[in-house]
Amino acid sequence: MSSLALALAVRDSNTMLRRNLLHARRYPSMTLNLLLTPIMMLLLFVYIFGDVMSAGIGGGGANRSDYIAYLVPGILMMTIGGTTIGTAVSVSMDMTEGIIARFRTMAIHRGSVLVGHVVGSVLQCVMSVVLVGAVAVAIGFRSTDATVLEWLAAFGLLAFFAMALTWIAVGMGLASPNAEAASNNATPLILLPFLSSAFIPVETMPGWFQPIAEYQPFTPAIETLRGLLLGTEIGHNGWLALAWCLGLTVLGYFWSTSKFNRDPK
Predict the structure, then answer these.
(1) CB atoms within 10 A of CB 146
(2) What DSSP string runs through the chain?
(3) Residues 76, 141 contacting (CB under 8 angstroms)
(4) How far apart are the first and last CA of the chain?
(5) Most buried of 44, 120, 177, 205 (most Cβ within 10 A)?
(6) How far, in Å, CA of 244 to CA of 265, rounded?
(7) How many CB atoms lie within 10 A of CB 127?
(8) pLDDT tens track of the chain, all 265 residues?
(9) How far apart are alpha carbons 105 and 103 in whole angstroms?
(10) How far is CA 259 from the centre of its chain?
């Protein structure tokens, strides 16, 4: 790609990014609904189940502050999964409402439409994580043992994980016949955290269920983020989390671009 073509691609991608951010600002109801879910889950598990869950995990007396520290990394990852559902719906709406057909007739870089969706979604994920993290700090979450380098690594992991799930969500949106189907197809992105170590350790689950919880993308990502924020051991989870992020990004990218570049029937 020549420098001129690259400059045009960047310009068109920036235009599509602004379009998607304006669209999200004008129709905030879906973003708010997806954001309220992790906040409600955080408050529910801390104030309703916190004492019981902390006693069960620790094997001793109830300590709600310890459970907050355990819970927050999983809730932050859940926030990313929930936010990307909006991306699948938005992409599906673009495909079914005719705007993509209009874009195909214009002299714009073809891939800029998808890039705008992906970058816009990642930015929304980051903002959602910051808001949920602020609520977590307000109710008692502290990360006093994490170094500056660990904080930067945690932020990088959250952004990488957001990009990976966004590309998968874009593919789901392109493969769905309508917005409702896109929302249903993307539901596993918010359900998988419930089947991970977000709320309880994997070793406390039934033996037959442990492989399901362990060998999925959310568990190693949550364990890595938990280790970075709390200054605990990460073990092999760091490499597994990066492998999942890379694999999902590549899979989502090629799936999305192949679906998008296919000529409409």
Answers:
(1) 18
(2) --HHHHHHHHHHHHHHHHHHHHHHHH-THHHHHHHHHHHHHHHHHHHTSHHHHHHHHHSSS--HHHHHHHHHHHHHHHHHHHHHHHHHHHHHHHHHSSHHHHHHTSSS-TTHHHHHHHHHHHHHHHHHHHHHHHHHHHTT---TT--HHHHHHHHHHHHHHHHHHHHHHHHHHHH-SSHHHHHHHTTHHHHGGGGTTTSS-GGGS-TTTHHHHHSSSHHHHHHHHHHHHHT---TTHHHHHHHHHHHHHHHHHHHHHHHHHSPP-
(3) no
(4) 29
(5) 120
(6) 34
(7) 14
(8) 556 556 656 665 676 667 766 766 666 666 677 778 899 999 998 888 877 777 666 555 566 788 898 999 999 999 999 888 888 888 888 788 777 767 666 666 666 778 888 888 898 899 999 999 999 999 989 887 888 999 999 999 999 999 999 999 999 998 998 888 998 988 888 889 999 999 988 988 888 999 999 989 999 999 999 999 998 889 899 999 999 999 999 999 999 989 888 755 5
(9) 5
(10) 22
Return the structure tokens found at 20. Answer: 């998607």
